[in-house]
Amino acid sequence: MSLKYLQSSRKLGVSPEIIERLKSVLGEENVSTDWTERFMYARSLAWPFLMKYPDVVVRPHTPMDVAQILRIANREKIPVVAKGGIGEGASVPLEGGILIDLTTLNKIDIHPEDKVVVVEAGASWHQMLAELRKYDLTVPIWPTYESAAVASAAFVNPSHGYGSTRYGVVADLCIGVEVAFPNGELLRTGALANEETEFGVFYRYPNGPEFTGLFTQIESNFGVITRLAFKTIDFKKEWLACQYFTFRRDQIDECGKAIFSLVRHEIFDVHFNDRWWVLPAIWEGVVKEMPEDAWFHISIINFGRTDAELRAQEEICRMVMNKYGGKENIEAAERLVGPTRWTPTYEKSNTEPWPAWNLVGHDSWGSRNTRNSGMWLTTSQHFPYRFFKEVYEHHEKIAKEVGIWNERYLPWHDSFACRDSFKTETFVMYNPYDPEDLSKVGEYYIKFFPKIVKMGASFHGLTIQFHGREAMEKLGPLYEWMKKLRDQIDPNHIMNPGTLF
Ligand SMILES: Cc1cc2nc3c(=O)[nH]c(=O)nc-3n(C[C@H](O)[C@H](O)[C@H](O)COP(=O)(O)OP(=O)(O)OC[C@H]3O[C@@H](n4cnc5c(N)ncnc54)[C@H](O)[C@@H]3O)c2cc1C
């Protein structure tokens, strides 16, 4: 993102006539120019210093509503951005204009006989999983944001979550999308293109080239996704069981090899943290038996539909950890992740879509770590497993240089070992009202990104607009092709300008 967006106060404005036209399409109650509402939508969760007001906030209730909003915006050359549940940067309306609040577009339609769910863009991922549980089904990627993020953002980012070690990222399980374009057209891709036939929505490749992947990481460029279809799998909470292993700091090579070996064994979920992440749990006495030299922490969720299958998964994990020198910690599995065998006492609530255990919610690591430090900023990127050590030590070096490698800033790693890549998030806890903290955090970011951008990192969408154009330009001719495609689909460049292009 260019600095001009932080500095300029330019606003295009939307005329009263356009507001009236939007009201006539959507109904008065679904169009707001109220200052308080615009203020609320001007914010980004991850980047509190970035505030840009939309001129008008609109709430569609059908895919056709979205198409009509885009047609009006396109005719009048008004910028448009779609916003999900919380937002982490790329849904701040950098040039004002129309902000589409997707959360009113939230129907969920389950086809258990085909193991498919069709969901509107603004239904929360969490709500979709909760509905699927009624049929003992799930989409087996469970991010930690619970009800805060919407299904289309989970696809666009694309989200990773518990389950990503075996199943990849959310977009890998998507079999079709419906997209509204600036000319008011609605297009269905993949399995959704087959929706009107007798066989219906069942298979991603319906005949001819398949375009669903074109709409990942669009960040409201090209168009707005209105509906998505996902494949599901059979799921019961009883089929999960947790393990926990630690490594010393000098075992970084062995730790990286152990993680990659578990990925190759298709363990359901493997999660990586370092000691900074676990310190608040030690301070609060949540875990008591944590060796002083336990620096790297591996949480494992096994998934087996019979006890024999679960035991086999656990044995594989122990075999790998024995080979590389990881130490098992049963207390930490139970207290920081979840039960080593499911029991009803671990249920937080029977409406939870997956057990969640000690991983999310008010008594989980997120709340505990924030309580013990401050607000967090993250980086979030994918890279190949063989760079595990180099990326870890790059973060460590920069954090030491800027003076945040200490308990005050808890600069931890929180990483999802995904099927096809290692997705690491580096965190810095800071006080957003302290200028010295802001300057340290800024310096960390400025020093952290260039090296990994140059090495070829793929960024998780949440902060994509902050990596500079280099992250896009590394794509070479593909980026040029994207620009040509944009000129065709969005000739007036109204879709979230200033983000990808
Ligand atoms: C506590 C917490 C935990 C988190 N844990 C995880 C995690 O485990 N895994 C993970 O992957 N992420 C995680 N995140 C990050 C999360 O993925 C992002 O915050 C995500 O962007 C939130 O989605 P949202 O619904 O707020 O959508 P937004 O942030 O508003 O949208 C994301 C981007 O997608 C675009 N977009 C959204 N919907 C559409 C659409 N229909 N058509 C076109 N473009 C669209 C938006 O314009 C924006 O550019 C976490 C965040 C928090 C706060």
Approximate shape: globular
N→C terminal distance: 9 Å
* Biggest sheet record: 8 strands, antiparallel
Number of helices: 16
Q: CATH fold name of the largest domain, please?
A: Vanillyl-alcohol Oxidase, Chain A, domain 3
Mean pLDDT metric: 91
- Based on CA atoms alone, the radius of gyration comes out at 23 Å
CATH architectural type of the largest domain: 3-Layer(aba) Sandwich
Which regions are unreliable across 5 or more consecutive residues at pLDDT < 50? 1-11
At the first level of CATH, the class of the largest domain is Alpha Beta
Total DSSP E strands:
19
DSSP strand (E) fraction? 15-25%
Bound molecules: flavin-adenine dinucleotide
The helix/strand class is: alpha+beta
- Widest beta sheet: strand line-up: 15-12-14-13-17-18-16-19
Bin the helical content: 25-40%
* Domains, number: 3
The CATH homologous superfamily of the largest domain is named: FAD-linked oxidases, C-terminal domain
InterPro entries: FAD-bd_PCMH, FAD-bd_PCMH-like_sf, FAD-bd_PCMH_sub1, FAD-bd_PCMH_sub2, FAD-linked_Oxase-like_C, Oxid_FAD_bind_N
Domain FAD-binding PCMH-type: 50-235
Keywords: FAD, Flavoprotein
GO molecular function, one term: FAD binding
How would you describe this protein?
- The chain is α+β, with helices and mostly antiparallel strands.
- It has three domains: 4-104, Uridine Diphospho-n-acetylenolpyruvylglucosamine Reductase, domain 2, CATH 3.30.43.10; 108-234, Uridine Diphospho-n-acetylenolpyruvylglucosamine Reductase, domain 3 (2-Layer Sandwich), CATH 3.30.465.10; 237-462, Vanillyl-alcohol Oxidase, Chain A, domain 3.
- Helices cover 32% and strands 19% of the residues.
- The protein contains 16 helices and 19 strands.
- The protein has helices at residues 4-7, 16-26, 35-41, 63-76, 125-133, 151-156, 164-167, 252-264, 275-283, 307-324, 330-337, 365-371, 388-401, 435-455, 470-473, 477-489, and strands spanning 31-32, 56-58, 80-83, 98-101, 108-111, 116-120, 137-138, 174-180, 186-188, 224-231, 233-234, 240-247, 269-274, 296-303, 327-328, 375-383, 413-417, 422-430, 458-459.
- The strands form four sheets. An eight-stranded antiparallel β-sheet has the order 15-12-14-13-17-18-16-19, sandwiched between helices. The protein has a five-stranded antiparallel β-sheet with strand order 5-6-10-8-9. A four-stranded mixed β-sheet has the order 1-2-4-3, with helices on both faces.
- A hairpin with a 4-residue loop joins strand 17 and strand 18 (422-430).
- The radius of gyration is 23 Å and the shape is globular.
- Residues 1-11 have low confidence and may be disordered.
- The structure holds flavin-adenine dinucleotide (FAD).
- Residues 45, 81-88, 90-91, 102, 121, 143-145, 148-150, 152-153, 156-157, 159-161, 218-220, 224-225, 366, 461-462, 496 line the site of flavin-adenine dinucleotide.
- GO terms for molecular function: D-lactate dehydrogenase (cytochrome) activity; D-lactate dehydrogenase (NAD+) activity; FAD binding.
- Residues 50-235 form the FAD-binding PCMH-type domain.
- Keywords: FAD, Flavoprotein.
